[in-house]
Amino acid sequence: xxxxxxxxxxxxxTRSSSALWRRTNDAVVLLGAGDREPITLTGPAxxxxxxLAGPTGWREACDALxxxxxxxxxxxxxxxxxxxDELERRGLVDAYPAP
Amino acid sequence: VTTPHDWLTDPKVVxxxxxxxxxxxxxxxxxxxxxxxxxxxxxRHVVSERLEGHLASAVADGSLPASDSQAAEAxxxxxxxxxxxxxLESTLLEAxxxxxxxxxxxxxxxxxxxAHLDYPDPSLRAFGDxxxxxxxxxxxxxxxxxxxxxxxxxxPQPRAGFDRRFGKGAVLTAPNGLQIDLHRTFVAGPFGxxxxxxxxxxxxxxxxxxxxxxxALGAEERFLNACYHVVLGxxxxxxxxxxxxxxMLQNRxxxxxxxxxxxxxxxxxxxxxxxLRMVWDxxxxxxxxxxxxxxRSYRPSSRELGYLAAYTGPHSTYVTKSLAGVRTIHGVRLKxxxxxxxxxxxxxxxxxxxTTATARxxxxxxxxxxxxxxx
Lengths: 99, 375
What we know:
The complex is a heterodimer. By secondary structure, chain A is α+β, with helices and mostly antiparallel strands.
């Protein structure tokens, strides 16, 4: 059973089955159950959505940002945590304790 | 081969965009990028035809050369229509829930069902409304369930009971402003009345939206629905339903014997034949198959041509379709009820349509005279 969790290295995430979404060329358009306005993920955030097709740890999500990104590793980690938290808040991903 | 200077004058560019991804098409995309004016013209057509998914796909895989700014616009417009598609699917789920709570079974038609079932990627297929089919005897309950949740019906039915007995359906506006077409059959008029609705409901195919299982029509029934849409819908016919047909043909999952059995039973052979001819011509399909040969050689009867004229003729209106529908109604009592509903509609119906009974009679007589060739 999914629970609301603060993103940490101890959690796994996966796309919620109730998420409405479409992949476009360089973006993902998403609408959570009960939301009125779709959101659009672009660039690295869109790549994270791709890896969330299956249970994904925070580290794997960070890796989806790719090498050569200009931000520092700490900044990237913070961005990923914020993105996962936002997606979970909108009901677009489910969070589980890591096995 | 289409050259860049053909951009403005050659609608084949738009057809080639619509046909992008079809293996059998002979349509070709230009081999150089358009200038700004040509691009703007193409985008205007693409938006009008809801082809943003195909345009983005053609640009993304390099089939359609485009400048950076043109590519960015293609992808941005694709995102816009996909955002609308998701909002419509959210509305679809809400409506399906309301109907289920009222004990009304439904089938999803066209847009969302086609996107998920017939295309390799649902993001290729844009759509602008929600189409749901409900059974005749549940039509009133379905409308009531939606109206109780603030879905507003755009126009009332002519008389109580008309919708569930004779109507095509009703158009409702959801609380979020999006449109739901609640269908009882595919189209108004004779071709809609002749559809065997029990047979239409016999088969269904499940598909998932937002983790929920919904039901669409069977593959052959979806194909027939697209044929009705192409031949009896917009004039000139839209490209998206034509692409739906071409896509289903390419998928090679249709049982054409069953298509022909259904179309014969529903008196719509001419609709299928004309739709296939149109699709073969629009996308310059190279395959010659048994079904394309059948379509090319089909000779419609004078009655079929008369019915078609009610939809596609220069004087086609709701009235011409309705009058043509009388012949397909079985039984004198039902014919009388149908004519009374059309000729003597309720005051509310007249008021909301901004007309009077006298004006309606005059319009009907005028249009009947024109369709007979008297006018």
